Amino acid sequence: MSFREGVERFVDRATLAAGLNSDTARVIKATSAVLQVRFPVCTHAGVEVFTGWWSVHSTHRLPAKGGLRFAPRVNQDEVEALSALMSYKCALADVPFGGAKGGLLIDPSHYSTREMREITRHFAAELARRGFLEPATNVPAPDMGTSAREMVWIADTYKSLYPEDMNQDACVTGKPENRGGIPGRTEATGKGVQFALQESFRHPDEVARTGLEDGLCGATVVVQGLGNVGYHTAKFLSEEDGVRVIAVIERDGVLVNEAGLNIHDVRQHLVETGGLQGFAGGSFSPERDEALEMDCDILIPAALESQIHADNAMRIRARLIVEAANGPVTCEADEILRQRGVVILPDLWVNAGGVTVSYFEWTRNLSHMRFGRLQRRYDELRGANYLAALESMAAGELPEKLRSQVARGASELDLVRSGLDDTMRSAFADIREVMKRLPKVEDYRTAAYVVAITKLARSYYDLGLVEADQ
Ligand code: GLU
């Protein structure tokens, strides 16, 4: 079963549970458009022809939104599956976008910065000229193999083609802060994973599913992938929630330390040497596949899709799997894990933080003003007045920590974090509501899909594209 077929199977399961008809399911599953481009660029290896895709899964809301991945093994089935996941993710997170995803077949490590810029700009121009890069319709963001650096090149290409577009900054999200980006976007997916986990631990009835009643603090965690998402997730959880990251899995192997790894230092080593081997603060082994099966409380796949599959699902020992990556558990593995009682916090919910903060960035670009600019000092003044009133009534000063919290206007980062936390909590409330309403839905993934496809179905009914069951 391909990745796309796997995602479609999840939709079918949710369609059945939600009682939607098969026409609705067919309309929801269909990819709206896929653009494939081939373009030549002169590199150190001579003239090379690159292949890229932009898949638009749904356009019931615009722009269609999703990451742009640069990887040596990307293909059309994969970008279609990922674009569908984006539609469902946005619907669940209440982000008013359609779903899209792009891919460029390339191994970025083979090229210099100058070559990467040239290639990215060519790709962006191909997309823009065909209407597949534009603030109102198609807005890429960072994904695997891309970062703020590529987003600047893409935005600059768009601007040179359409200088008259006054919303040009909004043609792409995940830009650096000094080029129209928003504070907190880089770490947004990891922060969202943390908020999701914190939220799931707030509800004793949910915690009872995993038996992790001792809470997040002290829980043992294995993380697969220390890229942007895995790194920030592991860093926030270990530094702020007291989890013990006992193993990190990367391309060259696994690093283990039962007392907990220092994530910042591991990442430093990874960036400097290109691998985990040789890191002094843990024991290294090249057996990375077996490492997924290590004894731990929480397993966080934060790398590629299909890492937990029919062949290893039986041996997974974690009690909770947190899908920081897109599609890390195949449809077959999902079945096996559910039967074994392993709880999965699904990608649709858990990694929605990236696109949620992209939504904030896009809105900010359209408003041409940073969040909080109008009210920050006003709030600060009001806080100071409250404090003065309180202190005159109490005839004494409040503790310094409280004073500084009350007499402080929110920074843009505070607002972004607050909006992200709220989004993750609201999505979980929706998931829980479905599980209460439909007792046959016993897993979070099906419930998340039910929330998402019900919203998509609603907009297709409103448009008259399909008939609702009476
Ligand atoms: N690449 C991220 C994802 O898969 C973010 C997409 C976006 O911000 O548009 O969710």
Features:
Rossmann fold, five-stranded mixed beta sheet, 15% strand, 470 residues, binds glutamic acid, seven-stranded mixed beta sheet, globular, single chain, alpha/beta
Descriptive notes:
The structure is a single chain. The chain is α/β, with parallel strands linked by helices and 470 residues long. Among the domains are: 32-179, Leucine Dehydrogenase, chain A, domain 1 (Rossmann fold, 3-Layer(aba) Sandwich), CATH 3.40.50; 188-350, NAD(P)-binding Rossmann-like Domain (Rossmann fold), CATH 3.40.50. Helix content is 47%, strand content 15%. It contains 17 helices and 12 strands. The chain has helices spanning 3-18, 22-29, 76-93, 113-129, 148-161, 188-200, 204-210, 228-240, 263-273, 288-291, 331-339, 347-350, 353-367, 376-394, 400-406, 412-437, 444-463, and strands at residues 33-43, 46-56, 64-71, 98-105, 138-142, 220-224, 244-250, 253-256, 283-285, 298-301, 320-322, 343-345. The strands form 2 sheets. A 7-stranded mixed beta sheet has the order 9-8-7-6-10-11-12, sandwiched between helices. Strands 1-2-4-3-5 form a 5-stranded mixed beta sheet. Helix 1 runs parallel beside helix 3 (76-93), helix 6 packs across helix 8 (228-240) and helix 6 packs across helix 13 (353-367). It is globular. It starts with a helix and ends in a 7-residue tail after the last helix. The relative contact order is 0.13. The model has no long low-confidence stretch (mean pLDDT 97). Glutamic acid (GLU) binds next to strand 3 and helix 13.
